[in-house]
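Troubleshooting: if your tokenizer reports a length mismatch, compare your output against this known-good record of 131 residues.
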Amino acid sequence: MMMTLGTFVFALPTLAYQQFQRQMAWRHASSERITARPANQFLGPGEESIELSGLVSPEITGTPASLDVLREMADDGEPMPLVEGTGKVYGAYVILAVNTTSTLFFSDGAARRIDFTLSLRRVDAPVQARA
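Known-good structure output:
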């Protein structure tokens, strides 16, 4: 097992990614000042996204049905825990996009190779207002 997103397991029989790209940002507010550089204040974490890309080659690794499962999960719109096979927990993520490119077709039109990219965004629980 390479990673899980909710109940979906990324592995050679299902869907194995070849590239893992993580982008993290932090927010800083800026206020203009006369005769001085702007004042800056750290506001906290910003957007965090992960992109997984790889290929499905039904004769060797993965199944096209796995991509359908991810599309159905995206349709639900629910946050899901993302956990690496090492046990590292990344947090709750939603699926933003599933992109595929099919090439090298069998005579019946089925693809021998499907390149995919899965785009995820981290979401946190809403902050509770203090009474």
